[in-house]
Amino acid sequence: NEGQKLEEQIQLYRSRFGFLPHKVLADRIYLNKNNCQYMESKGIVPTGKRLGRPPKQEKTEAELKEMHRRNEVEGTFGTVKMCYGAARIRTRLPETTEVAVAMSFLAKNVITFLRELIRIILCAPISFVFFLQNYKWFANILHASQFFKKHIP
């Protein structure tokens, strides 16, 4: 199952960014005993439902923020699967699958970018430069385009 690939994903993150992540926003399938021990040994904070009996105390504000962020990430995955074709990928080679998934995320990011751009142009008196400087996902679009230049002739 996909929960066994967490170590590989963390190492890919390290090779891409040069350091390990501080936190891992993960589904319950990734938070098995082996993965939690691995993350603890690397100093990574797992976020998600803990293993075992649920605690009796209320969730702190920080835990609620982490849960909100994780839900946002999972919602993005669901949107990409349902609306941008990631659930219908039927490629054979792993490299082709990576490109197809990246194309789905690129399409979602471009549509989101254009929708936000139109909203700002029509509804808000904020300058375009401010818009570009303050949206992190615009950098992701640029990074994805570099990925395609590298992998697609």
TrEMBL record:
TM region positions: 117-135
Keyword Transmembrane: yes
Keywords for the protein's UniProt record, in alphabetical order: Membrane, Transmembrane, Transmembrane helix
Protein name as it appears in the record: Transposase DDE domain-containing protein
Pfam families tied to this protein: DDE_Tnp_1_2
Domain Transposase DDE as annotated: residue spans: 24-107
